[in-house]
Amino acid sequence: MNTIARGIKTPIIRKGDNLAQIVADSILKDASINNYELNDRDIIGITESVVSISIGNFVDIKDVVTDLNNKFEGDDIGIVFPILSRNRFSIILKAIARAKKDITIMLSYPNDEVGNPVLDLKVLKDINSNFDLISEEDYLKNFSNFKHPWTNVNIVEYYRNICLDEKSSVKFVFSNNPEDILKYTKNVLVSDIHTRFETKEKIRNKDKFSKVYGLDDISTESINESGFNKKYGLLGSNLATKDSLKLFPNENYELLENIQNIIYEQTNKKLEILIYGDGAFKDPVSKIWELADPVVSPFYTKGLIGSPVEFKLKYLSENEFKNLSKDELEKAIESLRKDKKNNTLSQDSMLGTTPRRYVDLIGSLCDLVSGSGDKGTPVVLIQNYF
Hints:
Shape: globular
Radius of gyration: 24 Å
Number of domains: 2
CATH class of the largest domain: Alpha Beta
Oligomer: single chain
Largest sheet: 5 strands, mixed
Helix content: 25-40%
Strand content: 5-15%
Order of helices and strands: EHEHEHEHEHHEEHEEEHEEHHHE
Structural class: alpha/beta
CATH architecture of the largest domain: 3-Layer(aba) Sandwich
């Protein structure tokens, strides 16, 4: 059979729920209703949000404020390369503005890290985005009417109003060189996601006396019994309420083992499991990269480690196999599949295939199946993938 991905409905999951039992029961119920069997190495994907919700991994902004003040002295701070997201960054910014009263926000341009546009460079064609810094005055003069083409929101003004509501002063500058923030402050909060390590290093190398932390350094341990993520901090967090964030889940392999054990006791089958967040794909119309989480999958069972070894069937059938009959072609392909299984495929056979990790491919598939709205399917079952 070909690969099948099923969205599995579950009850609404709340803090304190036994997530392992809910996931296992929901899958077993779906298999019974729809008359299919589970197999060894079937894959269960569970969205990261229900993992965090079930254990109450939330942080109040007052605890984020405490952590920020513990790390940064004084009342000034520079925020470097935050993504333009009301869901992802607005509450974080609210906490920053509550902690510090003199804020400089440096945005990359013309887009943020994941592809959200912040200004239209066609307005001024002589700007070199590799070198030029656009000041607040330049922005207000030339670009301030720009709105996001999909949300119709001027995110600069949206972020500005968050700071003003907290009685903080704020100015915006636009640059693709992170060291430029040092012209305004030595207290720097690096806020990009996938390039954060390079950004921190550039700023520290420019000024060894600067105080540089990233969003991945904030809320890495519990404050006043708050939630935390020891590896990613505030990265991967989402708006929960007007004063709190749901954090990315910490690694919890006991959860995965419990689900495996419950299903094995019922079916005698051992399934693989991963926790997934954003998929690693780019929307072809908006040009926005979906992956605003630090990784696609924060943790998973050992059977999902590795990358597929694939051959380019279309290339082979039009080149070295082009003179074979249909039956001969089928035999040749079957021989290649054996080579694939034994890891003896030639480089020519793999021409054009892109090496990717199983967890990134499978997590992206899960995200596409479950969606981000109200489908009510936070669990995905994938069969015949291997």
